Amino acid sequence: MKNKYFIILAVIFNGYFTAIAQQDAIYTQYMFNMLPLNPAYAGSRDVVSMTALYRDQWRGIQGAPQTMTFSADAPVANEKVGLGLTVANDRIGVYNTFGVTGSFAYRIRLKKSTLAFGVSAGFSQFSGNLTNVQTATESPGSTGADNAFNANISRFMPNVGAGVYYSSDKFYIGFSLPRLLNNELRPQSANEFNNVFRAQQFRHAFLMAGYVFKLSSSVKLKPSIIWKFVTNAPTQIDVNCNVWLYDKFGIGLSYRSLDAPSVMLEWQIDDNWRLGYAYDWSTRLTAYTYGSSELMLRYEFGYNKAKVVTPRYF
Question: What CATH number should be reported for the domain holding residue 297?
Answer without folding.
Answer: 2.40.160.40
